[in-house]
Amino acid sequence: MFQIQTNPLGCFAIRDGKIISHSSFISGQSTEITAKSLIYARKNLLPEECKIAEDLSKSKAGCEIGLKNCERAKQDKTNFENVRFVEISQSKIIPIEEIAEQIMIDPYELKRHIWSVNLEITKEEMRAPEIDRVAIQLISTVDELNNTVNLMDEQLHEYYGAYFPEIDAISDHEIYASVAALGNRENLDLKNINLSEKIKEKLRTEGIASFGMKLDDKYISGASLLAGEILNLYKLKAELEENLKRVMIEISPNLSYLAGHMLGARLLLRAGSLEKLAFMPASTVQMLGAEKALFKFLRTKKLPPKHGIIFTLSEICTAQKKDRGKISRNFAAKVSIAAKVDYFKGDFVGKELKEKFNKVIENLKHKRH
Questions:
Q1: CB atoms near residue 245 (< 10 Å)
Q2: In CATH, what is the architecture of 2-105?
Q3: Model's pTM, two decimal places?
C-alpha cells in the first residue's frame, strides 16, 4: 500500500518505508507559505497531495493510499477514479527525521526549518482572525448605518414632507436631506445642492406656493436638525466605506477586484473569515446569505435557491432569470479561487478572473442573439 505523508519538508509518496516521489516545501517556497499549506492540510488535500495521488493512480489499477485523517480527502475523491483512501495510524507514520535522512537534509537544518515553520504557524493562527475582523467589523458597521439612515430618512420624509410635499420628487435621499436641512421652504438657498438649475428654480417656485401645511420656524428647525444628523451619517458612511476599501485591497486584493470591496467584505462576514471563505466549496460560496431559502427548500422540496448575497452583483441581478444560476455558479467558483490566492498571499490574479467571468457573460449574451 502507498502512503502520502505531509510535513514541514513537503508531500511524500511512500511505499515500504521508502520515498518514491515527493514535492518539496524547502526549495523555492517561504516558510510562511509552508505554514499556510500545513494549516490548509488539516482539513483539505493540498494540490501537491492531489498530484501525487493522481500519479499513483496511473501506476496501479485499484490503488489504495494510506493517509492520516483521510476525512479531508472526501471532497476530492471524485477526482481519482482508481483511488481508495484509507486511514493510517500514527504508529505507521514515518518520522520526519527518517524522511529528512532519505532526502539528505542535515539534522541541524531540519531542526531550524521545523522551528521556523512552527513559528509561522503560530503567527498565522494568532494574526489571521485579527486582520479579518477589521473588514468584518467595518462592513457590519456600514450595514448598521444603512439601516439607521434608512429609518431616519423615512422619519424625515414624513416630517418635512408634510410641510413641503413637492420635495418628494427628489428620489436621492441624501439630496433630499440636504434640501430639508435648509429649513424654510420659502427661502431656499440651493446654490450648494447637487441639482440642475432647472430643478432648483422649480423647487424655489414650489416652495413659495406649496400646498403643504404651514409651520412656524421653531417647528421647521426640528426637521432641519434631523436632516443635518442624517447628512452627518451619510458622511460617516462614506468615510467608513473608503476605509473598508483600503483594508480589503490590503488583505484581499483579488477578491476586492473581482467582487468589489463591499460585496467582498459581505462574503467575508457571511463566511466568518478569509480562511473559512478560502476553504469553502464554490457551491457553499454561491449560497452564502441564502440559508433561510435553502432550509425552506430542504423542508418543502420546492424551487431551490440559485444564489445568496452574490445576487447583489450587477451582472447577476440584471441577467435573464434562466441565466442567473449559471452566472452565479461561475462567479462563486471565481470567488473561491480569489479567496484561496488571497489567503495564501499568492500573485494578483483578480484581473484575469474578472476577464474570464466577463467572457462568460458575453458568451451568454451572444447565444441569445
A1: 17
A2: 2-Layer Sandwich (3.30)
A3: 0.66
